[in-house]
Structures are given as C-alpha cells and as structure tokens.
Amino acid sequence: MKVTEKRPFNPGMVNAYVPGASDRLGAEEQSLIERRDRALGPAYRLFYEEPVHIVRGSGVWLEDAAGDKYLDVYNNVTSVGHCHPKVVEAIQRQTATLNTHTRYLHETILGYAEDLLTTFPEHLNHVMFTCTGSEANDLAYRISKAYTGAAGVIVTSLAYHGITDAVSQFSPSLGEFVPLGSHVRAVPAPDAYRFDRSTLAEKLAADVRAAIADLHASGHKLAMFICDGIFSSDGVLSDPAGFLGMAVDEVRRAGGLYVADEVQPGFGRTGEAMWGYQRHGVSPDMVTIGKPMGNGQPIAGVVMRSDVVDHFGRHTRYFNTFGGNPVACAAAQAVI
Questions:
Q1: Which of 98, 163, 168, 247 is the 20 to 30 A CA-CA neighbour of 179?
Q2: For residues 218, 250, 247 and 262, what is the CA-based torsion angle, rounded to 10 degrees?
Q3: Mind listing the pLDDT tens digit for each residue in 320-332?
Q4: Distances (CA, A) of 336 to 24, 99, 283, 305
Q5: DSSP string spanning 253-296?
Q6: What is the three-class DSSP state of 187?
Q7: Number of domains in the chain
Q8: Given this model, what pLDDT does residue 15 score?
Q9: According to the model, what pLDDT value does residue 10 have?
Q10: Taking the model in full, what pTM does it have?
C-alpha cells in the first residue's frame, strides 16, 4: 500500500498550526479552517503546519480527502485500530438495543467493571466511570480531598492531567496562561538524560519531599501525588524501572495518596504490562484511565481502594449522565 508523505516533519510545529504559515493548503482546507474559526472560536488548535483533512480510518491507516493514506503512528485513542470491526459491531448492536444512564440496573456496566477489575491487584476493587480522562482525574482529586482532608497536589513539571478547572491547575503543560494553583507544587520530571540514572530515585524522592515541606510551609497538607508512570507529557521517561517507588513512600509518609494516571500508558501501551505503574513495582491508591479504553468511544474512569472512596461515597452522591452508559461499556468490553 502506498504511503504519501506530503508534508515535512517539523517537531517545533507539530501541535501549533499558525494561520497564514503555509500557502500550500488547498481551497477546501482553507475554507474548512475559516468555517472552523467562525464556528468553534480561537481556543481550538490544529495539528501540523499544514493541517490534514482526514475523512476515514481503518486499522493503522488514515485517509485524507484526496485519497492519500497516512500510517498513523501518533493517535493516542484508537488503541486497537481505527474502526475495529469488533468494536464497531459492539457499538452498533448496543445502540440499536438501549443507551441510557447508570441509574437503572444493567448487565453491561457490571460485566465490564468486573472484567476490568481483574486486571488490577485485589486491593483496587472499585471502579467509577466518567466520560473523559479529565473527568476521571477531577473525580480522583475530589476523592483524595475527602479521604485526606487536605488539598495539596504534587505533579511533575510538564505533566498534563486534563482540562477541568480543578485539574488544569495541576497540568503545567497547558502553559503560562493556565497558572498552577497555590495548592500545587511541580517537581522536575525524572529525566535520565539530565540526571545520573543511579541516583534518579533518590533525586525524585528528595524533590517530592521538598515539595511536601513547601506545601506545609504555605499552609497546605498533601492530598495526592499524581503522575503518569512513563511521564508521557514530560517526554516519555520510563527508565530505569522502579525509580518511582521512593517518591511514593515520601507521599504516603506525608499522609497523601498516590494516583497513577494511566490515561496515556494504560491498556498495554508500554508493551510490557497492562498498566504503566507496574514497571515501577508500586501499588497505587487510585488509578485513572481513559483514552484507549473505548477505542474512541468516550469512556474513562477511576479504579480505587474501597476504603479510599468510602467517606466520599457515603456523603456525596455521584452521577454522570453518560459515564458508563451501555454503549460506552459495550465498546470498552470489546476493546478489553
């Protein structure tokens, strides 16, 4: 199959199309960009200096309006391939049968939840469903605050955890115009290229310890340390295996929870295990999941210890209109 490479790769512009930066766009693409600006406003971003007009996908291939095919080595949602027939069939079948919220009894959400939980250690024995990873991290933060009675958060310096108001305050990769909250401290990502590998675990632990002390000095106690086990947004920093353990110990000594954000590395995407945190030999208090979970069908969630969610669940009703609906769970079941 022919692969057409129409545009040179420019890493400085991968996520930053600038209007007027290229005069090589066709009339149709220019018209779509103008319509997009009028309808969606200025906050949305397009990939690449010359945005790609994708009209269909199949497996690892994407196809643009001109019929040119692209090998998709980037997409972080369609974990089993674009338009996977088993996932499509599951969605179609359930859509034709029933799609509603989680306040009715229904087998699909229960069957999926039970199967999903078998991929985690026994102490992570509850799952709550959301639509997106942002919602999952927002919910994890709410639960952390209820469990610990604290609000402080520690993240890594270029972490991305989502776009809700609460979560954007601990997503430093969103940039200077989305400031960190006063209750948030960012520590340097554990970059083995810049630091001695043999002391990487000690350095990260020391940075976390210092962040905890700084939070305390400003009147904040630690609720949670949240990180992606392979530090995807910090640059994919996965080695050496096990370097996360000492930092997690510091968090627990301070009374905080360790939340493993598996929205990027989860569902086997590291090639080693089902979950990214597993390569570090650590045991999370909560795990947030999303993106590849439904192969593009919106579904995400939080997996947690039953005691962690007990206070929150007894005092706070949780409801999500579309989180865990039958169609989303059918898609997720087909993926898993």
A1: 247
A2: -80
A3: 999 999 999 999 9
A4: 42, 20, 22, 21
A5: HTT-EEEEE-TTTTTTTTSSSSSGGGGGT---SEEEE-GGGGTT
A6: strand
A7: 2
A8: 55
A9: 36
A10: 0.89
User: Do 233 and 210 have their domain in common?
Assistant: yes
Q: Pick from 40, 71, 102: which residue ends a domain? A: 71
- Which residue range forms the structural domain that includes residue 209? 85-335
Please name the helix (run of DSSP H) or strand (run of DSSP E) that holds residue 126, with its range, or none. Answer: strand 124-130
Checking DSSP bridges between strand 257-261 and strand 222-227, what pairing results, if any? parallel
Specify if 2 maps to a domain. Answer: no
* Domain assignment of residue 3, yes or no: no
Is it the case that residue 9 has pLDDT exceeding 50? no
Look up residue 75 and give its amino acid.
Answer: N
DSSP state of 158: T
Type of residue numbered 317: R
Rounded distance, CA 48 to CA 92, Å? 33
The residue to which tokens 């979560």 are assigned: 167
> At CA 283, angle to CA 278 and CA 288, rounded to 5?
80
Range 131-140 average pLDDT: 96
Tokens found for residue 242 = 């096990």
- SS3 of 12, please? helix
CA–CA distance, 153 with 170 (Å, rounded to integer):
7
Three-state secondary structure call for residue 142: helix
Alpha carbon distances (Å) from 168 to 149, 197, 272:
21, 31, 30
Q: What span, in angstroms and rounded, lies between the C-alpha atoms of 175 and 142?
A: 24
Q: Is the pLDDT of residue 179 over 60?
A: yes
Instruction: Answer yes or no: do 108 and 256 share one domain.
Output: yes
Q: In what order do the strands lie in the sheet with 184-187?
A: 124-130, 300-305, 286-289, 257-261, 222-227, 152-156, 184-187
Rounded distance between C-alpha atoms, residue 2 and residue 78, angstroms: 22
Residue 226 to residue 171: CA distance in whole angstroms: 10
